[in-house]
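WARN no homologs supplied; continuing
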Amino acid sequence: VQLQASGGGFVQAGGSLRLSCAASGSISSINSMAWYRQAPGKQRELVAQITNTASTNYAAFVKGRFTISRDNGKNTVYLQMNSLKPEDTAVYYCNAAAGINGWNYWGQGTQVTVSS
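OK structure emitted
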């Protein structure tokens, strides 16, 4: 599985961005996809996840502000980020869990910077 993330950038607090993650390769083996983020000096943390049955899961710190969705025809997962805060500044990574053992695949990170 290969993942190509895009859509990061610089935005003022209160603004919006949409991240995209296009999957290719063994698409049929993917069980779920997710977005993680990692801020400088901090551990990588789960932001949002969407399963093959379209069930979603969000970190408490983004509930009501971020929405994860997917377009199966385009093999793409999106993260719509609204009401962005400076503390949302981080490198955002796309993740796919695939196969029987849930092997993790990662895309390259995309930088999101929110100014106050």
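The longest strand covers residues 30-38.
OK
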